[in-house]
Amino acid sequence: MITPDRLSLNTATVSRQWNLEQAVEGCLRHGIGGIAPWRDKLHEAGVNAAARMIRDSGLQVSGLCRGGWYTAEGALTPSVIEDNERAVDEAVAIGAACLVMVVGGLGPDSKDLVSARDIVTQGLSKTLDYARTVNMPIAIEPLHPMYAADRACVNTTAQALDICDQLGTGIGVALDVYHIWWDPDIQTQIARAGKERLLAFHLCDWLVPTTDMLSDRGMMGDGVIDIPHYRSLVEAQGFDGLNEVEIFSAENWWKRDPDEVLQEIINRARQC
Amino acid sequence: MITPDRLSLNTATVSRQWNLEQAVEGCLRHGIGGIAPWRDKLHEAGVNAAARMIRDSGLQVSGLCRGGWYTAEGALTPSVIEDNERAVDEAVAIGAACLVMVVGGLGPDSKDLVSARDIVTQGLSKTLDYARTVNMPIAIEPLHPMYAADRACVNTTAQALDICDQLGTGIGVALDVYHIWWDPDIQTQIARAGKERLLAFHLCDWLVPTTDMLSDRGMMGDGVIDIPHYRSLVEAQGFDGLNEVEIFSAENWWKRDPDEVLQEIINRARQC
Questions:
Q1: Which CATH number covers residue A42?
Q2: Helix crossing, B157-167 with B186-197: angle to 10°?
Q3: How far lies A68's CA from each of A22, A87, A138, A225, B116, in Å?
Q4: What's the pLDDT band for B272 if we cut at 50, 70, 90?
Q5: Are residues A27 and A58 in contact, defined by beta-carbon separation less than 8 angstroms?
Q6: Could you list the residue range(s) of the whole structural domain that residue A180 is in?
Q7: A111, A178, A181: which to substitute to probe chain B, counting the most B Cβ within 10 Å?
Q8: Where is the Xylose isomerase-like TIM barrel domain (chains A, B) (predicted)?
Q9: What percent of chain B lies above the pLDDT cut of 70?
Q10: Is residue B153 over pLDDT 90?
Q11: Residues B179, A144: Cα–Cα separation, whole Å
């Protein structure tokens, strides 16, 4: 059972309904312990105002979504590197537990996954150099293999940890049950990560059938992911961060009253 | 470059347009070297008649699709085991190079992936016992992780080879670029498989965006898979089987004149 104070609301879950201020107020109203904003919501509010708003709320910040997209221009360009440094600064400004990285997929007009993965590792290395100077942990989020082409070419926890091993301290993983639940190697890899590198843990569910690869995620309990199992694996390593709820749901949860969404998250989390 | 005689037509590619007889005649008309029927097409024609038709055609048979579905009833039942033995018999009857196994996903109302994988391994073991008596190679097809819930809980080549290691001789893998292209470990695993266990090699392409998880595969060249790269990996191990083309495409190729589809397959394969 997850109590509301152990939950964090990823703003993507109510992205169509609420701005950041409304999300912060919603979390407080429902007793949810933390928030994880996306950068567009920060920018909309203004980073300084957003940082003040979050600090004043007393909410924990389980992460900032998201840096990365290193392959967007086909090579590591100054603008990509600088944008990631700004993301680090923003994560610091709001007191985030980590900056979550969605690393980017294949470069434009490219079929070269090996090269994309090289670019990503180089980019993470540069961002990490900067993040270390301001003590912001970098969390690689391995994305489900169905996003390898267009969102992230880091697709398994093993692959993310290989990059962490290569780059050293200050970098770990953000694990979302949606992306990792299928992985036959996940138990071994969560143990390999260990407490220090388990920087974030995200919840939602995998619906059967899934009608849209991007925006048809389910509320916990509506799909087939054995969430208590994966939670027990990260907690066995000592993970004590919040359980962040991130649900992209164009046809269902994004269409509902967000107070109803938050109440349902709380109900479902009690059953996890 | 793949010449037509090195191609095999998986009947799924023209499943909406042609029965088995038409597919056999189509292959002969276009100089395609082999065919890989699905069982429904065999049953429709009658297995004995189909076997005769294929033998008389002189086409090679790169595989029979498909056995497996061990988890369909939540436990290994006699009917599941017997159906797989019938599939082995049918593969023998048509002179298939292997019986391709789509192993099944989670059991009904189950979230237990570990248990599903156990059932699958036990089921494969039983089918393999029978298949060895008639010398029919069993080919586990690791399916893309997006099918873990509802089609196959064997989702990586490493996982399939672990099962092969456990079960011994007579079993290997059928690798479809659609299912494996994202895998950061694929080069290592193809080398680990080696010629003896590389039983089939399937072609199509991954479209961006993919609008349907099941029936929106692309024609080779229309997506982002570096097909020559994966072909070179299997051929480096000595794989000399046919290049089997299996395209599920509800909104495009299934709606076209199948002779046009075959001609396009031949054109695209020359560029691979």
A1: 3.20.20.150
A2: 40
A3: 27, 9, 10, 27, 35
A4: confident
A5: no
A6: 4-271
A7: A111
A8: 29-259
A9: 100
A10: yes
A11: 13
User: From CA A262, how far away is CA A266, in angstroms rounded?
Assistant: 6
Q: Which residue of B has its CA nearest to A112?
A: B226
* Mean pLDDT calculated for residue range B151-168: 98
pLDDT at position A243, please?
98
State the residue for tokens 């907690």: A235
Of all residues in chain A, the one with the smallest CA distance to B112 is: A226
- ipTM metric: 0.97
Q: What is the pLDDT of residues A42-52, one digit of tens each?
A: 999 999 999 99
A255 in Cβ contact with A21 (< 8 Å): no
Q: What are the beta bridge partners of residue A100?
A: A65, A139
Give the number of domains in chain A.
1
Q: Residue B234: pLDDT above 90?
A: yes
Nearest CA among B175, B158, B154, B192 for reference residue B227: B175
Confidence grade of residue A54 (pLDDT, cut at 50, 70, 90): very high
Residue type, position B165, single letter: D
Q: What share of chain A is helix, strand, coil (3-state, %, to 5)?
A: 50, 15, 35
Among A140, A185, A176, A179, CA closest to A158:
A185
DSSP A67-124: EE-TTTTSS--HHHHHHHHHHHHHHHHTT-S-EEEE-B-SPTT---HHHHHHHHHHHH
DSSP 8-state secondary structure symbol assigned to residue B65: E
- Where do we find the tokens 């600088």? A82
Lookup result for tokens 């017997």:
B82
Q: Is pLDDT at A272 greater than 90 in this prediction? A: no
How far apart CA B211 and CA A179 sit, in angstroms, is 19
**AA letter at A152:** A
Looking at the complex, does the CB of residue A49 fall below 8 Å from at least one CB of chain B? Answer: no
Token pair of A18, please?
């609420």
What is the share, in percent, of chain B residues with pLDDT greater than 90? 99
Do residues A183 and A189 lie in contact, with contact meaning Cβ atoms separated by under 8 Å?
yes
* pLDDT at A83 (0 to 100): 98
Contact residues on chain A for B183, CB-CB shorter than 8 A: 145, 155
- Most B CBs within 10 A among A112, A113, A154, hence the mutation to make, goes to A113
